[in-house]
């Protein structure tokens, strides 16, 4: 069975500080990892996926299969980054594998 | 492009009553999902449709929950009878392909008293 763990429910940083949201997973196969974000009063939406290997809104995430982690990082946090962030795992190699979400981390960026 | 539409946005019922939620996915999206999000938790998949066929309903409490996807487009999720622990936001999402980006609706918030 697949599992996603986000150890921090709340994370507070000041504007301009680096931020790292942690995500660990357990899955015996080859997973696809995603970060979804929900800004205040908006829908849950995709932020980035590991296979794209791109930076979105200054955020990056690297899949570390050895540590089974997919931490989300940004070198300089902005106030508009304040939101709920969810790490999610798709069981790779299957056609219809479900997307499993972590518990989420609320990021607050203070001015 | 119109997004995923859900209704109603809010519903308050008493335990043992029934409730139904409706979802209209993005046009052309073959895969449709219903997630349950209890306060303080991440979304949990209840059921996943590929066109009008069910591909995963392993976490759907089938004694009280049912879902269907009419003609491979709209979908309804029903709870009968509701329990207090069913209080949650019910999220509908759709994707073009089964391993693609999920597009979520605004959700339907259910309160069971």
Features:
heterodimer; A: 111 residues; mainly beta; 6-stranded mixed β-sheet; 3-stranded antiparallel β-sheet; 43% strand; B: 113 residues; 7-stranded mixed β-sheet; 4-stranded antiparallel β-sheet; 0% helix; globular
Short description:
The complex is a heterodimer of chains A (111) and B (113). Chain A is an all-beta fold and 111 residues long. Chain A has strands spanning 3-5, 10-14, 19-21, 24-26, 32-38, 45-49, 60-61, 72-74, 83-90, 99-101, 105-110.
Structure explained in plain terms:
The complex is a heterodimer of chains A (111) and B (113). In chain A, strands 2, 5, 6, 9, 10 and 11 form a six-stranded mixed beta sheet that branches. A three-stranded antiparallel beta sheet of chain A has the order 3-8-7, with no helix packed on it. Chain A is mainly β. The mean pLDDT of chain A is 91. Chain A starts with a strand and ends with a strand. Chain A has strands at 3-5, 10-14, 19-21, 24-26, 32-38, 45-49, 60-61, 72-74, 83-90, 99-101, 105-110. In chain A, a hairpin with a 6-residue loop joins strand 5 (32-38) and strand 6 (45-49). Chain B has 113 residues and is mainly β. In chain B, 0% of the residues lie in helices and 50% in strands. Chain B is built from no helices and eleven strands. In chain B, strands 2, 4, 5, 6, 9, 10 and 11 form a seven-stranded mixed beta sheet that branches. In chain B, strand 9 (88-95) and strand 10 form a beta hairpin. Chain B is globular and about 35 Å long.
């Amino acid at each position: 069975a697949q599992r996603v763990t986000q150890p921090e429910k709340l994370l507070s940083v000041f504007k301009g500080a680096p931020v790292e949201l942690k995500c660990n997973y357990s899955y015996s196969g080859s997973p696809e990892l995603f970060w979804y974000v929900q800004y205040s009063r908006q829908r849950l939406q995709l932020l980035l996926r590991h296979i794209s290997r791109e930076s979105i809104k200054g955020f990056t995430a690297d899949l570390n299969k050895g540590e089974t982690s997919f931490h989300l990082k940004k070198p300089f946090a902005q106030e508009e980054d304040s939101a709920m962030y969810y790490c999610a795992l798709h069981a790779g190699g299957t056609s219809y594998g479900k997307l499993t979400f972590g518990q989420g981390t609320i990021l607050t960026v203070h001015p | 492009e119109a997004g995923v539409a859900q209704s109603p946005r809010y519903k308050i019922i008493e335990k043992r009553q029934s409730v139904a939620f409706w979802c209209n996915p993005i046009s052309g999206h073959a895969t449709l999902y219903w997630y349950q999000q209890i306060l303080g938790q991440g979304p949990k998949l209840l059921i996943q449709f590929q066109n009008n066929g069910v591909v995963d309903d392993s976490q759907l409490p089938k004694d009280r929950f049912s879902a269907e996807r009419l003609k491979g487009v709209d979908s309804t999720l029903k709870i009968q009878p509701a329990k207090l622990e069913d209080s949650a936001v019910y999220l509908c999402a759709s994707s073009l392909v089964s391993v693609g980006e999920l597009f979520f609706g605004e959700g339907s918030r259910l309160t069971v008293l």
